[in-house]
Amino acid sequence: MRAAFVKPLDLIARLLHQRREDRGREKIYALHAPEVECIGKGKARTRFEFGCKVSLATTNRPAPGGQFVLGARTLPGNPFDGHTLACQIAQTERLTRVPIERAYVDRGYRGHDADKNRVFLSGQKRGVTPTIRREIRRRTAIEPVIGHMKADGHLGRNFLAGAAGDAINLILAAAGHNLRLLRAWLSRLLAVLLGLLTLSPPTLPAPSAQPALR
Q1: Which of 98, 173, 206, 212 is the 20 to 30 Å CA partner of 24?
Q2: Is the separation of the CB atoms in 82 and 109 below 8 Å?
Q3: Looking at 69-183, which runs of residues are DSSP E strands?
Q4: How far apart, in whole angstroms, are the C-alpha atoms of residue 79 and residue 98?
Q5: Beta bridge pairs of residue 54
Q6: Quick one: CA dihedral 147, 153, 159, 164, positive or negative?
Q7: 95 belongs to a structural domain
């Protein structure tokens, strides 16, 4: 019996011995999902979130179909955002096979590990041209994408077990978001084509009778 319940007993022992001020991955927030972590948001409405930190990359300029997700990674262990930027850029370039010319991130990425010549932070003044300044303002367009993925793509609530389930759920949410955009774009295209096909052909005026010349 003890060998059969060694894992649940170990989790319960860790739960009983942990303290409120303990930090790190050893702290347990949920017995049914011990991989859950406490992520500080720093917002008045939501100070903390419990789950797994993820990293998303989208296009800066929206495509005709919308704002597509180019890369998505889970970040177990709640690492510092700046230490994950280089891996996220590498994944996006590997998936799209297109080198990233410029990347725009928020101020939480200060001290990042990526190429500083092509990474620009919100509020940055040095080395910012009018084009880059306009593209920096577009950085906030990723927030609605995250909101749609949480509300419509089940990113806000994961029902798959374990760290592997977190990664699978993120990939499915990102793919579902892109498929929804493609479906909406194809629906609009189909409506335009059907509208063109149902247009009645223009009526030509009847030829006027000409008097016969002798």
Answers
A1: 173
A2: yes
A3: 69-75, 103-105, 119-121
A4: 27
A5: 74
A6: negative
A7: yes
Cα distances (angstroms) measured from residue 87 to each of 33, 168, 197: 26, 18, 49
pLDDT in tens, 6-58: 888 888 888 888 777 776 667 777 777 777 777 777 676 777 778 788 888 88
Report the distance separating Cα 174 and Cα 68, nearest Å.
9
Q: Distance (Å, rounded) from C-alpha 25 to C-alpha 186?
A: 45
160 contact partners, CB below 8 Å, separation of at least 6 = 166, 168, 169
Which DSSP helix (H) or strand (E) runs through 195? helix 162-197
Q: Round to whole Å and give the CA distance between 203 and 192.
A: 22
Structural domain includes residue 105: yes
Q: Has residue 154 been placed in a domain?
A: yes
Q: Which domain holds residue 126?
A: 56-70+80-187
**Which tens digits make up the pLDDT trace of 87-112?**
888 888 888 888 888 888 888 888 78
Q: How many domains does the chain have?
A: 1
Length of the chain counted residue by residue:
214
